[in-house]
Amino acid sequence: MQGKFITIEGTEGVGKTTNIEFIQHWLNRRGVEFVSTREPGGTPLAEQVRELLLTPREEKVGDSTELLLMFAGRAQHLDQVILPALDSGTSVLCDRFTDASYAYQGFGREMDCSLIAKLEQIVQGDLRPDLTLILDIPVEIGLKRASERSTPDRFEQEQIEFFDRVRQGYLKIAEENPERCTVIDASQSLDQVQASIEAVLENFYSQASATE
Ligand code: TMP
Questions:
Q1: pLDDT digits (tens, 9 = 90+) for 169-212
Q2: Residue from 49, 170, 51 nearest 101 by CA
Q3: Does residue 155 line the site of ligand 1, with CB under 6 A?
Q4: Distance of CA 169 to CAs 47, 101, 102, 141, 197, Å?
Q5: Whole-angstrom Cα distance, residue 197 to residue 182?
Q6: Among 39, 81, 159, 163, which residue has the most ligand 1 atoms within 8 Å of its CB, making it the best to mutate?
Q7: In the chain, pLDDT over 90 holds for what percent of residues?
Q8: Can you name the residues that pair with 134 across neighbouring β-strands?
Q9: Does the C-beta of 96 come closer than 6 Å to ligand 1?
Q10: pLDDT per residue over 74-117, tens digit each?
Q11: 201 CA distance to ligand 1 centroid (A)?
Q12: Torsion on CA atoms 189, 138, 150, 28, rounded to nearest 10
């Protein structure tokens, strides 16, 4: 089977890490060859860009600077990891991708989404994920979980209104891309969340094998 590009998205504290582990186990059980990676990051250089982006600092980071750094890391990640994997038939499981740029920079920072679309075209051409799981939770619950976990990074220091816009952004992306995106209610119990994820994966892989 051709390599598939699967992305996981959601606001802070939504449970991405635990559910990515669940997906990794599921793919292993299915015998799917895959690489697991993340954005921002995924290569040594792109991980340095991640550090630049997440480290809280006194200097104000301009919105365009933030957006361009996201896409600089992404270009490197695509070139070094994502495209070589997909080209060799290996699937890619990615913790965040360009939907995060629309949700955080477009909706959160209220930047012009057509600018993001231009960068997307330059950096990715027509490449889009085959499947995107958007874990959704009320932002107050997610932020509380995230704050119990570690000291806040530069994004986690944002106000609740910012994350509300990000969440609405993700829901809008899902609405506009129903063939690719599934929203999972992450406020359910972990067992229920994982049963929902499993059902989506089963459906996705059975359709993929039927069309090949
Ligand atoms: P993480 O905490 O999920 O590892 O992600 C790091 C932060 O980067 C998270 O707050 C979302 C943010 N981000 C963007 O703002 N735009 C992007 O394009 C990506 C990939 C992440």
A1: 999 999 999 999 999 999 999 999 999 999 999 999 999 888 87
A2: 170
A3: yes
A4: 25, 10, 7, 18, 21
A5: 9
A6: 39
A7: 92
A8: 9, 183
A9: yes
A10: 999 999 999 999 999 999 999 999 999 999 999 999 999 999 99
A11: 24
A12: 50
**How many Å lie between the centroid of ligand 1 and the Cα of residue 65?**
14
Check if 39 has its Cβ closer than 6 Å to any atom of ligand 1: yes
In this prediction, residue 147 has a pLDDT band, given cuts at 50, 70 and 90, of confident
Measured in angstroms, how far is the CA atom of residue 40 from the centroid of ligand 1?
6
What is the CA angle 200-212-210, rounded to 5? 50
Q: What's the Cα-to-Cα distance from 59 to each of 45, 108, 110, 126, rounded to whole Å?
A: 22, 19, 20, 35
Give percent of the chain with pLDDT exceeding 70. 100
Q: What is the pTM of this model?
A: 0.97
**How many A from CA of 33 to the centre of ligand 1?**
26
